[in-house]
Amino acid sequence: MTVVLPISAEPAALAKEDARPGRWRRMPTKAKVGAVLLGVFVLAGVIGPFVTPYDPSFQNPSPALSLRAPYGAHLLGTTQSGQDVLSQLLTGIRLTLELAFFVGLVATVLSVLVGVSAAFLGGVWDEVLSLLTNVVLVIPALPLLIVLLGYWQTNGQTATILVLSLLSWPWGARVVRAQTMAIRNRDFISAARETGEKTWRIIGYEIVPNEVSLIAASFVNTVLYAIGASVALAFIGVTNLNSWSLGTILYWAQSQQALQLGAWWWFVPPGLAVALIGTGLVLLNTGIDELGNPRLRDAASASRIAGHWLPPADPTPVLSDASQRRGRLAGFLHSFSRSSLVDETKGGDAR
Amino acid sequence: MPFILRRLVFYLVAAWVALTINFFIPRLIPGNAVQSVMAKFPNLGPSAYKALEALLGVGHPGSLWHQYVSYLDNIFHFNFGTDVSQYPASVSSLLAQTLPWTITLVGVATVIAFLIGTALGIVAGWRHGGTLDRVLPGLMFLQAIPYFFFALILVELLAIKVHVFPTGQGYDNGLIPGWHWDFISSALYHSALPALTIVLTSIAGWMLQMRNVMITTSGEDYVIAAQAKGLPSRRVIYTYAARNALLPQLQGFGLAVGFVVSGAIVMEIVFGYPGIGLLLLNAVTSKDYPLMQAIFLVITFAVLLANLIVDMIIVIADPRARRMEATS
Questions:
Q1: B251 at the A interface (CB within 8 A)?
Q2: pLDDT at A309 over 70
Q3: Which of A1, A53, B130, B147 qualifies as a cystine partner to B267, CB 3.0-4.6 A?
């Protein structure tokens, strides 16, 4: 197969095109809204702890400041023991985002490691790693997290970060594996292999750069999951309750009956912050998705014929690995997975 | 071997992994759990101390392998040990009391959310760019709200400000649980708000997923061919596009069950709903380790069972699976 490559513009010209101001305008609206929303909270997380009006843990003994509704000096009111809710919120956003970021980082590294090696090693190794991925995926994470952290009560976030990352890599690993399978046998990989490149170089310089958008999406998803899970864990009371995160604010609000006392300013802001960060992440991810898959894009790119919206045809048909040949043991292992259902070839008959 | 039997083997492997993790948690994590439990509950006798030691693996009662075998033996006989916070009660009896509440509530609400979300997703995906498609970002916001926070807001609005629903609990105080109308109607009334929470927060996820698959499917050649033949829209949507888009949705359902259950556990705490989530919270706050571990196992088994049921539905719904069943 001969591929005629168009002699394209010089690299400098390409880089210039990349940086032109229209790039932001051409992004899907959802991605823009998501990025702005997220940016606001990241900014709050970075500068928040430096601009807090009060010490978030300082309990003002004045009875007038117990459960005071928002007013000039306390913009988000006070808690039952006279603590400033705004200060707690600004400190809490930082801690929650920090934790979610580290969980996303560790889990994404794990998922790329597992996903790429499964697809690259192939055969029995692939099936063993896929089996492991599927098992971790099917065991409900939150109850396990609660039990683990119930035993492992330490101060600080390391335990939570470690345990959350160890349980949230499988989603990414599946996606990365599927994508690696799809590009593993492309011409440019074969070319690299023919020129005698080492395997780790092929993985590091040819495969992973081609999966950057996918890995980014998986990172965003993991961060989203980590925020939800860490807030839920703090709300239950199994993480370190001495530091201020969005979850611990909610924990204290719930345990001191903010709801029953009608103190909406105490529990609405932290919950709303979690929801808005989450929405920002979801929107950003949908935007990334639409960038890669034109069919999902808004009606702007669809044409209307005789009253029907016609989405543009998918320009890149995705090759499935259905016709992949497996050895006897690998085929046997594969036949236990749910995806064995959609494969045309039956397991174990490769030889 | 038929597909469904192979899946059963897979779930047995997953269950074994969960059992083994559960066995090693108290043995690998530093800290003497027995001492902290005994310090907290002075009413425990020496026999309870021995049982705790055996369960948590301290004091070296035999080799690790020996402990493991007797642990598995106990689990197979549904013997999860004695509860420490409500001392003479056995853990199994506490589980039997709370599990039906959770399964009924979470099961019914999840199925409702799945059906409504899928139906909305079909419409949004088919009328891509239409009115329904445009409200999606709003639904994403609903989805991003933590379950329990949404529950807090609903309680505030619908139970405290406007007295439409009760603020919590599974049934009215003073009623004796049993199969009589007073109790059942009260239980239904109390479960309305928790169910509403689950449905509202999880609809968006199903809808988004179905919409995306539906958009891809409705661009397929066979759907365009069906339209070109002049088949009625309804037939093209439901028998051609939606039917094929439903399979990935079903596969996603199996994996999402774990998420839904996790969310519902935390939500139960807000409502004080007498299910397994509230029991777990009580176990955590009172450091009741045997109960915590048993709850983790029971929830895991329930999720695995739900997955197996979804696999059965897939086998019935997917002709490829039926063919495999016939040939193997």
A1: yes
A2: no
A3: B147
